[in-house]
Design a protein that fits this description.
Length: 500
């Protein structure tokens, strides 16, 4: 069967439906930033600490000059940070939810959380807005922690081998489209104003409603049906729905071998995965890939972008920031096209290496932008290139490569651990970056350049290429490495004992 004929309408529907969860994740990430001053003012009013002149919002510059009350700062910080905390906690439950009722029903179940979160934020003016928004953001973070694991897992399991990378990268594409959408809708003349901001936040839950109608039309993962439940006929039906009329024997044979291997092993929980020497290589690679994404400095770039654009004389820095969002989306599309041709390893190396060079250019631009006005444009160019390199490889690939390098048994636990690593490092960067920036000033990007260099070297020496390989072949690569490491350890022990 020609793999080119395997992109069916049912497969497209299933991937699109799953990616709606990722779109919601991206929207929730970006939506809180645009109306910050307006929301802070509503918090101040609800807390009874607002000044008389801040009761009208006709001139936002007044709000920027008005000193913020410590209570407002605390509640605002909590509104932003609670999202990551929710994600950190729920990422541990990805494996449990995925195996409880299956991937499709799992995604359907967690949509209840997204709708509740959307209602809490959308109706926040009916009670205390600061409490309602924080509750909504916490529930939405909890939902996004689950969906950021369930979506790549489902797409990775239903995608044909030849298109697994491209379809896997759609998770990140949907995230960046969600961020861009939140930036555009969050503009003052749209929903980012005094009257409409609760609707802006409440729309976070809208994709979950559409997804809930579409999920019952999507086939369950054949790998889940066969390997976990042992339902061969149902797995075959699911394969035929996803691939169209074809010979399912090769796929079923591969799943049969994987099931036999999984049956030999004890059930892989998160705890046993951490302490297992068999999966240590894969787990180390998975965690380092996610760390490379979050510790690359991408969040710092977004943090710095508005001030750099202001320094460069851009009249409306918010539009330049939206420009960064557009670049984000375009280059994620480039990654979707290239990932199954160039390969995961190649694109990640190119992305991290390019980001490293851009981080050095950023440092030079920031250092000399006051002495040499044209250096501001160097900084601007470095921002756009940094984002481009990020989305070519380090942005999308960590999300789906974890599903590729682990077999069916440990996959849910591995995705849960990698997701928790991603959310935790994201939270730590968000919490500590302002302090690191205050300490290091413009040299903060040298720190990121050093980290990027380390990640580039790690991926060059330790991460194999998974393009075009079956799950079985990828597992064999790591088993071979594990066996070599084991033999090397045994040899060292023999040498030590003979020397003694």
């Amino acid at each position: 069967m020609d793999e080119g004929k395997q992109l069916t309408g049912t497969l497209a529907l299933a991937v699109f439906t799953a990616a709606l969860g990722s779109l919601q994740f991206g929207y929730s990430l970006g939506v809180i930033n645009a109306p910050q001053k307006i929301i802070e003012n509503h918090y101040a009013r609800a807390l009874g600490v607002s000044l008389e002149r801040s009761l009208t919002l006709e001139n936002n510059t007044d709000l920027a000059e008005e000193p913020k009350h410590p209570s407002v700062v605390m509640y605002w910080s909590l509104s932003v940070a609670i999202f990551s905390i929710g994600g950190m906690v729920s990422s541990f439950l990805v494996g449990f939810i995925a195996n409880l009722r299956g991937r499709v029903k799992g995604m359907l179940m967690v949509n209840v959380l997204a709708v509740i979160a959307g209602l809490l934020m959308g109706l926040c003016k009916m009670w205390l807005p600061h409490i309602m928004v924080i509750m909504g953001r916490a529930v939405m973070g909890f939902y996004c922690g689950l969906t950021s694991g369930l979506v790549p897992m489902y797409i990775g399991e239903i995608a044909p081998k030849a298109y697994r990378g491209a379809l896997g990268a759609l998770h990140q594409l949907a995230i960046v489209i969600g961020i861009l959408l939140s930036q555009v809708i969050g503009l003052d003349f749209a929903l980012g104003n005094d009257e409409m901001w609760p609707l802006l936040l409440g729309l976070s839950g809208a994709p979950a409603i559409l997804q809930s109608f579409l999920l019952p039309l999507c086939p369950e993962s054949p790998r889940y049906l066969y390997i976990l439940l042992g339902k061969e006929q149902e797995a075959k039906k699911s394969l035929l729905r996803l691939k169209g009329p074809c010979d399912t024997t090769p796929d079923l044979e591969e799943m049969k071998r994987e099931k036999e291997e999984a049956d030999k092993e004890a059930k892989v929980s998160i705890r046993s995965l951490i302490f297992s020497s068999v999966y240590r290589q894969q787990l180390f690679v998975a965690l380092m890939m996610h760390l490379s994404q979050q510790l690359s400095g991408i969040n710092a770039i977004f943090y710095y972008s508005t001030s750099i654009f202001e320094q460069a004389g851009v009249g409306q820095p918010i539009y330049a920031t939206i420009g960064v969002g557009v670049i984000n989306t375009i280059f994620t599309m480039v990654s979707v096209v290239l990932v199954d041709r160039a390969g995961r390893r190649t694109l990640t190396l190119a992305g991290l290496g390019g980001m490293c060079i851009c981080a050095v250019a950023m440092t030079v631009g920031l250092k000399y932008q006051f002495d040499l006005p044209w250096m501001s444009y160097v900084s601007m160019a470095a921002i756009f290139l940094f984002v481009s390199f990020f989305e070519i490889g380090p942005g999308p690939i960590p999300w789906f490569i974890v599903a590729e390098i682990f077999s069916q048994g440990p996959r849910p636990a591995a995705i849960a651990l990698a997701g928790c690593c991603n959310w935790t490092s994201n939270f730590i960067i968000g919490l500590t970056f302002p302090y690191i920036q205050a300490l290091m000033g413009c040299y903060v990007f040298i720190l990121f350049a050093a980290l990027l260099l380390c990640f580039t070297l790690f991926i060059y020496f330790r991460v194999p290429e998974t393009k075009g390989k079956t799950f079985e072949e990828i597992a064999a690569i790591f088993q071979k490495k594990h066996q070599m490491a084991k033999e090397s350890t045994e040899l060292d022990q023999l040498k030590t004992s003979s020397d003694a």
